[in-house]
């Protein structure tokens, strides 16, 4: 079980819907789509240490319960999958009003940001890294289900696959899926056939 550090992370919702963290101070809000909020924070002990906190504020509505499942699915993957080209999680906690986890802050942003200025040699290197990461995920029986440039972080000349909210952890690599997931323009073609499909494989029977 992933370690729970309740004394290290203390978030609470105030009147402005902001987060206060006892060992960190908030630099800025990166994402605000309630009930999920993402904060860039800085350590109070060492201001050179930057982190990101992703928090899900609990509620009882069906929509927010669905989002909670996505949030916890991401935590489950990050707690069990460790690879140099996959985003890491420092620790997570479950509290009365929210779930939250802390992860490193990656200065260079996403692949979407750097792609227009990327030269061929670096593009080839990133492609090899992505293949290694996806191969490892499939070895661990994890299907990402929303792999796109916005969900690939860049740091120190390497890629990191991120955002596992739609991912599936499946019992075998032959398990068939029925639920359609992901960003429409990035979905695999077989998802549009309204049939069962294997999320680990690309169908050679689909006509593009």
Automatic annotation (TrEMBL):
<feature type="domain" description="Protein kinase">
    <location>
        <begin position="24"/>
        <end position="208"/>
    </location>
</feature>
<dbReference type="GO" id="GO:0004674">
    <property type="term" value="F:protein serine/threonine kinase activity"/>
</dbReference>
<dbReference type="InterPro" id="IPR008271">
    <property type="entry name" value="Ser/Thr_kinase_AS"/>
</dbReference>
<keyword id="KW-0067">ATP-binding</keyword>
<keyword id="KW-0808">Transferase</keyword>
<dbReference type="InterPro" id="IPR011009">
    <property type="entry name" value="Kinase-like_dom_sf"/>
</dbReference>
<dbReference type="Pfam" id="PF00069">
    <property type="entry name" value="Pkinase"/>
</dbReference>
<dbReference type="GO" id="GO:0005524">
    <property type="term" value="F:ATP binding"/>
</dbReference>
<dbReference type="InterPro" id="IPR000719">
    <property type="entry name" value="Prot_kinase_dom"/>
</dbReference>
<keyword id="KW-0547">Nucleotide-binding</keyword>
<keyword id="KW-0418">Kinase</keyword>
<keyword id="KW-0723">Serine/threonine-protein kinase</keyword>
<protein>
    <recommendedName>
        <fullName>Protein kinase domain-containing protein</fullName>
    </recommendedName>
</protein>
């Amino acid at each position: 079980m992933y370690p729970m550090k309740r004394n290290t992370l203390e978030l609470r919702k105030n009147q402005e819907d902001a987060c206060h963290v006892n060992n960190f101070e908030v630099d800025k809000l990166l994402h605000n789509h309630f009930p999920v909020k993402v904060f860039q924070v800085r350590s109070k002990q060492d201001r050179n240490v930057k982190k990101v906190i992703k928090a899900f504020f609990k509620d009882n509505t069906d929509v927010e319960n669905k989002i909670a499942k996505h949030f916890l699915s991401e935590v489950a993957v990050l707690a069990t999958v460790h690879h140099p080209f996959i985003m890491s999680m420092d620790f997570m906690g479950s509290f009365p009003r929210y779930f939250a986890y802390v992860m490193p802050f990656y200065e260079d942003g996403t692949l979407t940001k750097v792609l227009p200025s990327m030269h061929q040699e670096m593009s080839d290197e990133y492609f090899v890294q992505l293949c290694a990461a996806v191969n490892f995920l499939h070895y661990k029986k994890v299907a990402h289900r929303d792999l796109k440039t916005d969900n690939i972080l860049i740091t120190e000349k390497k890629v990191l696959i991120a955002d596992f909210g739609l991912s599936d952890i499946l019992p075998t690599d032959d398990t068939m899926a029925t639920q359609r997931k992901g960003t429409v323009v990035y979905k695999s073609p077989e998802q549009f056939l309204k049939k069962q499909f294997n999320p680990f494989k690309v169908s050679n029977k689909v006509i593009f």
